[in-house]
Amino acid sequence: MFSSLFSRAMCQNNAPATSQNEAPQQMGLVKSLVAGRTIAAAAANVGGTAEGYSCEFGSPHYFALCGLGGVLSCGITHTAIVPLDLVKCRIQVDPAKYKNVFHGFKVTMAEGGVRSLGLGWAPTFFGYSAQGLCKFGFYEVFKVLYTDIIGEEAAFLYRTSLYLAASASAEFFADIALSPMEAAKVKMQTSPGYASTLRVAWPKIYAEEGVNGFYKSLVPLWMRQIPYTMMKFACFERTVELLYKFVVPKPRSECSKSEQLVVTFAAGYIAGVFCAIVSHPADTVVSKLNQEKGSTALEAAKKLGMAGLWKGLMPRIVMIGTLTALQWFIYDAFKVAMRMPRPPPPEMPESLKKRLQAEGKL
C-alpha cells in the first residue's frame, strides 16, 4: 500500500529540457498541484530569487525531509510542555484534587518536587516524534495525491476540503504510531506511583492488559487527533493565505525569512486555539480511559458528564495554541534551513480563469 502510494507521489522528472535555458517539464502530481505557479524555496531571498533547492518538489527526498521536520516540530514541542500537559491530565481525571492549573502545579510539586513535573517525558518524546513523522510527511503526500485525483481546478476551488482530507488521512496513520506511547504517558501521569519511567511502564501495561493496553484508547485518540489535525492544517493554510492577502503589505516572495516565520507563527497560534476547542472533549476521554483499566470510551464519557468533558479547557488552549504555533514555526524554519521548495499561496489556474472570464463570472 505504502509503496504504491509513494510511487504515485514521487513525481521525479525524467523529461529532457527542450533547450539549454528551459527547465525540464514537471510531470505527474507536481504538475497538477503547481500548474501555472512558480515554486519558491522556503528560504527565498528578498525579491523572490530562490537560493536553490536542496531537493526536487514531490520526490522521496522531499517527503522524507517533511517527515523529519515533523519529528522535530512535534517531538521537541510536546516534550517541552510536559509539565503543563501533566497538570492538565490530572485536572481532567481528578478535578477535586487538582482544582485549577496553579493549584495543580502546587499539589504536584508538594507531592513529588520539581522533578515530578517531568514525569512522562520519554513516552511523550518518542510518541510524538513518531506521530510528527507520519503527520507532516503523509500530509504532504496526500495533499499531492488528492490534487492529482480531483484535478488542478477543483483543487483550487475546494482547497479547504483538500487540506481537510489530506490531514485526516495523515493523522489516521499518525495516531497508530502514537497510541502505545500515549497510553504509557497518560498512565504514568494520571496514576501516581504506577511507574516513574518508560522502562517500567511498558512491561507493566503489557503484563496487565496485553497489546490491547496500548491501543484501547486508539478510537478516542482518533476522535481527538483527527479533528484537531484537520483544524490545524486547514485553518493554518487558509490563515496564511489571508494574512499574505490582507495583512502583510507585500507578497511572500518579497518577504525576508524572518518575516515569513512571523506570519507562520501567527497563523499557527490562531489555528491552535481552534484546535484545542474542537478536540478537548475527546482529549478528556483519552485521559480518563488510560487512567482506568477496563473502561470503555462511552463509559468514561458518561462518568465525566458534560461539564467534566470540558475540564482543563483553558490550560489546553494555552498549551495547544503555543504548541501549534511553535510546531509550524519549527517546521517552516526547518524548510528554510534545508532550502526546500515550497509553492506560494494558491493562485487561480489559468484554465479556470479563462473559463470564468468566458462565462462572465470574473
From TrEMBL:
PANTHER family: SOLUTE CARRIER FAMILY 25 (MITOCHONDRIAL CARRIER PHOSPHATE CARRIER), MEMBER 3, LIKE-RELATED-RELATED, SOLUTE CARRIER FAMILY 25 MEMBER 3. It comes from the Eukaryota. The keyword Lipid metabolism does not apply. Residues 342-362 are annotated as: Disordered. Transport of phosphate groups from the cytosol to the mitochondrial matrix. InterPro entries: MCP_dom_sf (IPR023395), MCP_transmembrane (IPR018108), SLC25A3/Pic2/Mir1-like (IPR044677). One of its GO terms (cellular component) is mitochondrial inner membrane. Keywords: Membrane, Mitochondrion, Mitochondrion inner membrane, Repeat, Transit peptide, Transmembrane, Transmembrane helix, Transport. GO terms for molecular function: phosphate transmembrane transporter activity. This is Phosphate carrier protein, mitochondrial. The chain crosses the membrane at residues 313-334.
